[in-house]
Structures are given as structure tokens and as C-alpha cells.
Amino acid sequence: MLKVAFSGAQGVGKTTILKGVKEKLENDGYRITILPELIRQCPYPADAESTFSTQLWVSSQTILHETELIKDTDILLVDRPITDIAVYKELVKQNKGMTRQEDEILTHLIDNWKTSYHLFFAITVPIDVWKTRDLDDGFRSTDPELYKFLADRFYGVAPEHAYFIENIDVKECINTVYEKITADSYVKKS
Fold it and tell me: Which of 2, 18, 20, 30 could form a disulfide with 174 if both were Cys (CB 3.0 to 4.6 A apart)?
């Protein structure tokens, strides 16, 4: 079993890349499961309105879902891993405030869980390319300042073994991720 994380700010193409990789891996006979980003199910505010409760809910749900889904698949592809909480935690601290204890709780969860990802892809896109994308899905923020705040921080939360991929050409990104996953010694077909 292999657990693969896809991290990055909103609108960088994580979900598109993830779906393309899934298709290629399924064509090779692997059982693939995707854990979609869970924030859309969260009962608390998102993005710039996010709170400690938002981040705690997303963290706990991510851990719970990953633990359950990894049991019945060859490869689990995670859209927005727990490390992303570290970035959004900084946004909460800046906007709403967070107690030291709340910060420590989230930091402990993130630091202990982030080592569970076998492969980690940090996806980026230059701001000028990001601005040309159709980002208005009625959920996520399309504010370039928020994007810059978040994007600048994603580099700092990625684990040491992360691959950094700039998404200029989505097909090239899909092929790069696919090659890294299939070259990994953890991957075994059921």
C-alpha cells in the first residue's frame, strides 16, 4: 500500500493532476482510491474565514479517512494532506487568532501524521498563470492576495522528501507524478 499526498494552494491543479494519475495507474491494473479535499464537507468556515475548529475538523477527518481508505487499495491519492493544515493554521493565526494551546494541538497532529505519506507532491503555479484559470467555483477564494499568502507558505510545510512540481503543462505534470509513483518500491498490485 502506498499513500501519496498532493499539496498546494487552491487552483494550482492538484485535483486535475490527481485524476489524470489515477487514470494512468488504473490502466496499469492498480486499485486506486482518491481521498478528495474534505474542506467542502466541513461545517465550519473555510479559506480566509477559517478558524481553529475548521482546522481541527479537517485534520481529524483527514486522519480518519486515510486510515480507513488505505486498507482496501494499492495506492491512496490524497488531495490536500494534513500538512496543508499548517498553512491554513497560519492564516487563522493572522486573521482570527489562535491560542498557544490550539497551535500546539494542530502542530502535534501535523508533525506526527506527515511522516505517514510515502510520496509527497507539492504543486505550484506562477501567479500570472493562476490568474488566467477559471477559479470561481462558488467555494474557494479567488483573491490573488490570499493565493500569494498561501502559496508562499506551502514550500515551508512540505516534508524533506517532497517533490516540487510547477504546473505549467498538466500532461507533463501527470506523467512526472506517474513516473515517480511507479518507480517507487512500495507499489505492489493486488
Answer: 20
Each residue of 48-75: pLDDT tens digit?
Answer: 788 999 999 999 999 999 999 999 999 9
**Chain centre distance of CA 78:** 6
Grid cell listed for 125: 503555479
DSSP for residue 29: T
The count of C-alpha atoms lying within 13 angstroms of the C-alpha of 16, restricted to the half-sphere facing its C-beta, is: 15
H helix or E strand, kind and range, residue 5: strand 2-7
| Residue 119 backbone phi and psi in degrees, to 5 | -130, 145
Q: Model's pTM, two decimal places?
A: 0.90
Phi, psi of 33 (to 5 degrees): -125, 140
Residue ranges covered by each domain of the chain: 2-182
Coil, helix or strand for 180?
helix
